[in-house]
Amino acid sequence: MALRFIGIDPSTDQGNCPAVWLDDEKKEVVFQGWKPDEETEAVCAADSPLPDAEGIVRLPYRMLELIRKACDEAMGS
């Protein structure tokens, strides 16, 4: 699997931080983020039940620029 690295959270120490990749082969955006607390997971599951094969991650607003960049690059692929 070849993932194309887009970037990491610009306000971190460059390690163990939220990040964004593109998987051009599978046409997917891949996110690394913080695991949600139980309350967040329950609220999300009320809107969209969470099957075992899926997960929820939390990303800070300051990463929106990277998410936009990933979306723009994916649309150009």
How many runs of DSSP E, i.e. beta strands?
A: 3
Structural class: alpha+beta
Q: How large is the share of residues in beta strands?
A: 15-25%
How helix-rich are the residues, as a percent range?
A: 25-40%
Unreliable sequence segments: none
Widest sheet: strand order?
1-2-3
Individual helix count: 2
Taking all Cα atoms into account, the compactness measure Rg is 14 Å
Largest sheet: 3 strands, antiparallel
The arrangement of helices and strands along the chain is EEEHH
Return the average pLDDT rounded to an integer. Answer: 92
Basic shape: globular
Could you tell me how far the N terminus lies from the C terminus, measured between alpha carbons in angstroms? 17 Å
Can you walk me through this structure?
This protein has 77 residues and is α+β, with helices and mostly antiparallel strands. 30% of the residues lie in helices and 19% in strands. It has a domain of 50 residues. The radius of gyration is 14 Å and the shape is globular. The model has no long low-confidence stretch (mean pLDDT 92).
In brief, what are we looking at here?
With 77 residues, the chain is of the alpha+beta class. It has helices at 38-47, 64-76, and strands at 4-8, 19-23, 28-32. The longest helix has 13 residues, at 64-76.
Secondary structure blueprint with pairings:
Elements: E1 4-8, E2 19-23, E3 28-32, H1 38-47, H2 64-76
Antiparallel strand pairs: 1-2, 2-3
Distinctive features:
alpha+beta; globular; 77 residues; three-stranded antiparallel beta sheet; 19% strand; 2 helices
